[in-house]
Design a protein that fits this description.
Blueprint: E1 2-4, E2 14-16, H1 28-38, E3 46-50, H2 56-63, E4 68-72, H3 76-88, E5 95-98, H4 102-108, E6 114-119, H5 128-134, E7 138-148, E8 161-169, E9 172-179
Parallel strand pairs: 3-4, 3-6, 4-5, 6-7
Antiparallel strand pairs: 1-2, 7-9, 8-9
GO molecular function, one term: nucleic acid binding
GO biological process, one term: rRNA methylation
Organism: Candidatus Saccharimonas aalborgensis
Length: 181
């Protein structure tokens, strides 16, 4: 199975995706809408792709001008596919791949903060308490986009974090948060 990167430096290039139900790569239509909503904020941004899967979202960010991307993924099959995708795009110098769960990484990571965070946890295990911890990694005026099923309550907001956009695409919901200040 393949996923096509949409625009930018790698626009039109295909990356691998595991042919199983363990990951749910964000569809091209939703990724396009997501990046259209972000616009030029992606240029020069330091990006975190949490629950990275194939890396499609982070690699799209890199293709559109992000300065660097940190990918965090725990699934061994997805890790191998992600690493292969980074090599196939010759993007290793702008990428850090962390092979562990987001919750484990949060307990051991350095204090680096990000301009943009993409969080796309498994729909059957949204880990919203872990997603809430990611807010602490946003730079002032930083943006976090959560892709989730939209069922139930969202993550707990922290001081200075506000919802700035909410969009539904079939069974997927994209909620954008911003750190004020």
């Amino acid at each position: 199975m393949y996923i096509r990167l949409i625009a930018g430096q790698y626009g039109g290039r295909k990356i691998d995706a595991p042919d199983n139900s363990r990951t749910h790569p964000m569809g091209e239509r939703i990724r396009n809408a997501l990046f259209n909503s972000i616009g030029t904020r992606i240029e020069g941004a330091e990006v975190l792709d949490a629950f990275a899967g194939t890396g499609a979202v982070g690699l799209e960010a890199l293709s559109r001008g992000a300065a660097g991307v940190t990918f965090v993924e725990r699934d061994k099959i997805a890790q191998k596919v992600l690493a292969k995708n980074v090599v196939s795009l010759d993007a290793a110098e702008k990428v850090e791949i962390v092979n562990t769960s987001v919750v484990n990484w949060l307990t051991t990571k350095s204090q680096k903060n990000y301009d943009i965070i993409f969080a796309d946890p498994p729909y059957n295990d949204p880990q919203l308490s872990t997603v809430s911890q990611l807010f602490a990694l946003l730079k002032p005026n930083g943006l976090m986009v959560l892709s989730w099923s939209g069922r139930g309550e969202g993550p707990n907001l922290q001081n200075g974090i506000v919802v700035v956009d909410n969009r539904s695409y079939g069974n997927a919901k994209l909620t954008s948060f911003c750190r004020i200040g």
